[in-house]
Design a protein that fits this description.
- The complex is a heterodimer.
- By secondary structure, chain A is mainly α.
- In chain A, a hairpin with a 7-residue loop joins strand 2 and strand 3.
- The relative contact order of chain A is 0.19.
- Chain B is mostly helical.
- Chain B has one domain.
- Chain B contains 21 helices and four strands.
- In chain B, the strands form two sheets. Chain B has a two-stranded antiparallel sheet with strand order 1-4. A two-stranded antiparallel ribbon of chain B has the order 2-3.
- Chain B is globular, with a radius of gyration of 25 Å.
- Classes of the chains: A mainly alpha, B mainly alpha.
- The interface between A and B is large, with 51 and 57 residues.
Chain lengths: ~375, ~500
């Protein structure tokens, strides 16, 4: 019995146990304090779908041997750009959609997603070529490539000649706004589709964003199917053991590029899913640290820096976002008037990444 | 004789230009800076004096990065942790109400043990993640930031009751966003007068050499009495000189005019060249590189002569240097050079080149790396104290966030890489990087009518140069194993193992 427990403990890992225990504790505390569990749960579900696809973007990157994609910001700026173009062209309010505003919103979002994914794919190919040249330090390089691209796009956001009233500042100010409302385009398209409330009214009950969750699971399913296809297996092999893969006739470099391109395109789709649920596009430095949160989520779900599964994404996102959502009101109740959630996000997300890094190489190999 | 001097000078210039051209990053920045300086629309003296201020503020932090590079730990993103140690000590010193140089010394005193402890922990962590120290350091910075915020927002005031301090948020829990250092620590180091500095240095030197001599006598080694006596006499003479009214009047101030600094430096260079020539050639009767000494003297004279050009004169009289801060920077440069000559420094260098070789030659690799981290963290803490006392406002939750990024970017701009860095890289880097920092918003405002573009541009440059240099480093290191693996592949049996180790 104890043997089996030990092996289970080994498989789950200490940090995940701590995080899971923590989640249960805050959840129980929230119940004790009477903080309206149904609405909190609804919030968790919404955030689960919101962040899910961004976290999913880590899978192809890790599986193809590039490590967690800290540079997912590359995909994120592509997604932002796609959305801006959709708003600028005002696709949601084209004359043909006049009688069906709902279809207009869908068209606007799908246009943004397709455009962003295509741009993301091409950017990802270039990025993959770069990462092939820096094998062994992908994480360090990708972090700074991510930071640089955010800073570079900041210049672009200021200078690009957008004319839409939603994008420009109303009076004065240069370039795009800090937050751009999606009221007139595709806000809540996925979230509100087939959404319903359980255990109470819309405000107090548990709102289930069915469309959003279906979309998230659908994307997970696609990636799952891809991973089981011949190409997906070749990609996993290239990541797991490049020498063996090369010997069996897999073009390792090409597979790594494929993984990076998929990851970037998923990042682009992910940020649009995020934005439609949030209701706003967050420009400038807002996505700077998003990559870290995504990496942390997939690691919390049980992935390592070299292996990741779809189940890691689903579990990890739920746990990570769940803790952040539920712990905030609990912390506010215990330590009144202060905001713990951001600090907690920093400690948990970066702590888990450091833990994964210490496990990655097993430490001192070279000296013995 | 004359011809050979020119030839030697020419050789020097040519080699300097060649070194510059071989380092594309430095060259690119030089061009960017020159372009920026030409388009600021402000007088040159403004840019120059800004750059000198920032130089005094930031160089210590950048120099703190050199030792980890030497020990093979790469660019130490973990100096953020040292900055936090400094900020913790500054908070308490301000809370206790200490001011001036006493308060500053107390800051140094408190921050040092904290920084050593944190440096030890960071070193332990780096030993567990060998090969990916940089990404670990980066993530560690954010992780530590979380803990730091927890400390300052909840523990101070919440767990440790502080009463009704003006430093706390009105509820009594958590520290305010900014702490004003004016009136307690601002300029506490910069305002040290040269007179005090020289006299203290002379007394300390006299005491130290006297103690050293007694110790050597007690160990019954025969000390070189004559040499020490001459040195001590010279030191005492300097001490005596400071009591001459003219000298003490000149040195009574805390800021040195750049013009005077150039004059003093030229004088010192000429005296050094002449003295060296006389001592080695005429007293010790040894061969001496006369050409090099002559070149030094000539350059010094030219530099002095240049100060008589009106434009340069105006520039030089517009800048005031805080002497104590600059003296500390020079001391740290000397320390960085000195440590290389010690046994510890040699060990670090060996560890940096190959951990396997170091281990087999009996060096405790892990310990050496931890010591390097401790030194770097302590220096970073001191650097942050110097930075904040010059800045004058301590932004509680923001002062440390960009410390690592800016320091590393500056070092890289100066031509350093992940594997090699020295004082020259640091100094050149700080000058170039901060020139760009000063001129970028001004130029962009002047050229595009938008200062915002310039601000984003300089951030982009900061991240971009780090990304570029990390990528270039990784690119170079990847090429090597590739060659090995193709060579190995012709010998099938050992294939898998060898390639695996080559990758690590």
């Amino acid at each position: 019995m104890s043997e089996r427990l030990k092996s289970l403990y080994k498989a789950v890992g200490l940090p995940r146990l701590i995080i899971f225990a923590f989640f249960v504790v805050v959840f129980v505390l929230a119940g004790i304090y009477g903080l309206g569990l149904p609405s909190l749960m609804g919030n968790v579900l919404r955030r689960w779908g919101m962040y899910g696809i961004l976290v999913l973007a880590m899978v192809p990157s890790i599986q193809s041997g590039n490590g967690p994609n800290f540079g997912v910001s590359l995909g994120i700026v592509c997604g932002l750009f796609g959305s801006l173009v959709a708003i600028e062209l005002d696709i949601a309010n084209l004359p043909i959609f006049e009688s069906h505003p709902q279809i207009g919103a869908w068209a606007s979002m799908l246009f943004a997603m397709v455009l962003a994914a295509v741009i993301g794919w091409f950017v990802g190919v270039g990025y993959g070529v770069l990462l092939n040249h820096v094998k062994g330090s992908e994480m360090t390089v990708s972090t700074y490539v991510g930071f640089s691209i955010i800073a570079f796009m900041n210049i672009m956001w200021v200078t690009l000649p957008f004319t839409s009233g939603d994008i420009k500042w109303p009076i004065g100010g240069e370039g795009a706004r800090n937050t751009i409302t999606l009221e007139n385009s595709f806000r809540g398209v996925l979230t509100d589709t087939l959404g319903f409330s359980l255990f109470g009214t819309e405000e107090t009950g548990m709102y289930v964003p069915t469309g959003l969750l279906i979309f998230f699971f659908l994307m997970c399913f696609f990636i799952f199917m891809f991973m089981r296809s011949k190409k997906g297996k070749a990609m996993s092999a290239a990541g797991a053991n490049p020498v063996f893969a090369r010997a069996s006739g897999v073009d390792v470099d090409k597979m790594r590029i494929l993984g990076t391109a998929m990851s970037t395109a998923l990042g682009a789709v992910g940020i649009i899913t995020y934005a439609q649920a949030f209701g706003f596009l967050q420009m400038y430095n807002a996505p700077l640290m998003m990559g870290f949160s995504c990496v942390a989520a997939v690691l919390i779900g049980g992935a390592s820096t070299t292996r990741a599964k779809i189940s890691n994404v689903i579990i990890g996102t739920f746990l990570f976002q769940g803790i952040l959502v539920v712990a905030l009101p609990v912390a506010n109740r215990i330590l009144s008037g202060t905001d713990l959630s951001d600090i907690m996000r920093m400690i948990i997300s970066n702590g888990i990444i450091i833990y994964a890094l210490t496990k990655a190489k097993g430490g001192a190999v070279n000296e013995e | 004789m004359k011809n050979s001097i020119f030839a030697s000078a020419k050789k020097g210039i040519v080699s300097a230009v060649k070194a510059l051209l071989s380092n594309k990053v430095v060259l690119m920045f030089l061009i960017l800076c020159l372009f920026g300086i030409c388009t600021t629309g402000k007088p040159l003296s403004y840019t120059v004096s800004e750059v000198f201020t920032r130089f005094g503020r930031n160089t210590f932090l950048v120099l703190a990065l050199i030792i980890p590079v030497l020990a093979g730990l790469g660019l130490n993103f973990g100096i953020v942790v040292g900055a936090m140690a400094a900020q913790i000590s500054i908070f308490w010193v301000v809370y206790w109400g200490f001011t001036g140089i006493g308060g500053l010394l107390l800051c140094f005193l408190i921050s040092t043990p904290i920084a050593i402890l944190l440096g030890y922990l960071v070193g332990r962590l780096y030993n567990k993640t060998k090969g990916s120290e940089m990404i670990t350091g980066m993530v560690l910075g954010y992780f530590a930031d979380g803990l730091y915020q927890f400390l300052f927002l909840f523990v101070i005031g919440g767990v440790i009751p502080l009463g009704n301090s003006s430093l706390l948020i009105s509820g009594g829990v958590g520290v305010k966003n900014t702490i004003d250092l004016a009136g307690n620590l601002k300029y506490s180091l910069d305002n040290l007068s040269m007179l005090l500095l020289v006299r203290t240095a002379a007394v300390v030197y006299l005491a130290a050499s006297a103690i050293a001599m007694i110790v050597r006598l007690m160990k019954s080694k025969s000390p070189d009495v004559k040499k020490t006596a001459i040195k001590m006499a010279a030191c005492a003479a300097v001490f005596g000189l400071t009591f001459i009214p003219a000298v003490s009047g000149f040195m009574g101030t805390d800021r040195l005019l750049l013009l005077n600094a150039v004059e003093l430096a030229s004088l010192a260079a000429v005296v050094y060249a002449a003295g060296k020539f006389v001592i080695t050639k005429l007293i010790q009767k040894q061969d001496v590189n006369a050409k090099r000494l002559a070149a030094i003297a000539i350059v010094a004279v030219i530099a002095y002569a240049l100060t008589y050009i009106q434009a340069i004169y105006e520039l030089l009289t517009a800048v005031l240097l805080p002497v104590a801060t600059y003296a500390l920077i020079i001391l740290l440069c000397v320390f960085n050079r000195w440590i290389l000559s010690t046994r510890l420094g040699q060990n670090m260098r060996t560890v940096g080149q190959s951990r396997t070789v170091a281990n087999s030659s009996g060096i405790d690799v892990n310990k050496t790396r931890i010591i390097a981290m401790c030194i770097s963290t302590v220096l970073a803490a001191w650097g942050q104290i110097i930075y904040l006392q010059n800045l004058g406002t301590f932004s509680t939750y923001g002062a440390h966030t960009m410390v690592g990024q800016y320091a590393i970017a500056a070092l890289l701009v100066g031509g350093a890489s992940v594997q090699s860095a020295n004082n020259k890289h640091a100094i050149l880097g700080v000058v170039l990087f901060h020139t760009l920092f000063v001129v970028a918003p001004l130029s962009a405002g002047n050229l595009f009518g938008s200062a915002l573009i310039g601000e984003y541009f300089r951030v982009f440059v900061c991240y971009g140069v780090i990304a570029l240099s990390l990528a270039m480093h990784a690119w170079k290191t990847v090429i090597k194993p590739k060659v090995e693996s193709t060579r190995v592949e012709s010998k099938p049996p050992a294939e898998a193992d060898t390639v695996e180790t080559a990758k690590q």
